[in-house]
Design brief:
Elements: E1 16-18, H1 27-31, E2 36-39, E3 44-47, H2 54-66, E4 72-74
Length: 83
């Protein structure tokens, strides 16, 4: 499972990220090219555009599911507890 603490620095902040376990297989780039790119110099994918529409989130979730090394993560939303 992807770890936020080890995310690639190329990721833009948002819901999805790619961590340092990426093996540059291109699966996410092929599945969701509007959101994932490859850093060929460092040999890893990263999120360059965060999805905002439900169908785009679904596309990124599919990319996350097909990642062979589980290097794509999705941040959990934390809810503030009011007292």
């Amino acid at each position: 499972m992807a770890d936020w603490e080890f995310k690639n620095s190329d990721n833009i902040l948002g819901l999805f990220f790619v961590d340092d376990q990426c093996i540059a297989c291109d699966a996410c780039v092929n599945e969701a090219p509007n959101f994932f790119r490859m850093n060929d110099l460092h040999g890893h994918a990263f999120v360059f555009n965060q999805p905002s529409k439900p169908e785009d989130i679904s596309t990124c979730e599919t990319a996350m599911e097909i990642c062979p090394v589980e290097a794509i993560g999705k941040k959990r939303e934390t809810k503030k507890v009011s007292r």
